[in-house]
Amino acid sequence: MCSLGKRGRVFILTLTGDGEHRLSPDVIASVRDALARAKSESAAAGGRGFALVTTAEGRFFSNGFDLAWAISGGSASTARIRLQSMVSLFQPLVADLLSLPMPTIAAVTGHAAAAGFMLAISHDYVEMRGDRGILYMSELDIGMPFPPYFLKLMRSKISDPKVLREIVLEGKKIGASEAMAKGIIDRAHGSALETVEAAVRRAEELAAKNWVGEVYGSIRRGALPEVRAAVGLPEETEEERQNLLAASKL
To answer: pLDDT at residue 250 above 60?
Structure first.
């Protein structure tokens, strides 16, 4: 599942356990609950000057949806239904991160594949372990189509069409150094510990700016309109913008 800790004004969400951190319905619900708690606690403390780091225990950041659970239902039709349920449940998790009223940093301390890759780039920043771990979209290799919102997210976060082609049409496995050179991640680090510490330092620097969280979330959604629409978030109304402006002057 996951745990939610706090270092000063930085929330640290950790995918826990020794496995691959497969995104089953229960894991997705656990992560969404942790994000909701971070949002609630930050609001209760004034709603400004917080940040979130997401990381994981062990050699995987996340190996994507729980395909073993999907096929354990005993029939191909049940497997398809279960897989689609995970696709549907993960979409609002991406929306939660897009709306979270604070900067977000993924500390990718191991392999991030398929939905695990999507989880990482749903954050504002990505710090990645350089000595071990890859980014990989496995859908082509296992014969699964991409959910439309996956493609919208990748197009919004990966600006070079040739890099996007490598990921989605070649199934290329990309290490941290190459991912940084290609603009997929922000920085590569020597070890898991160094990756988490770098992510926390970045989070502390961003939290110290004491930005109004709801304004930050509003600007993020506006900067990623294609993803916002794909995950079902409505466009902000003029009334909502005016309310944010009024609140920011308090």
So the answer is: no
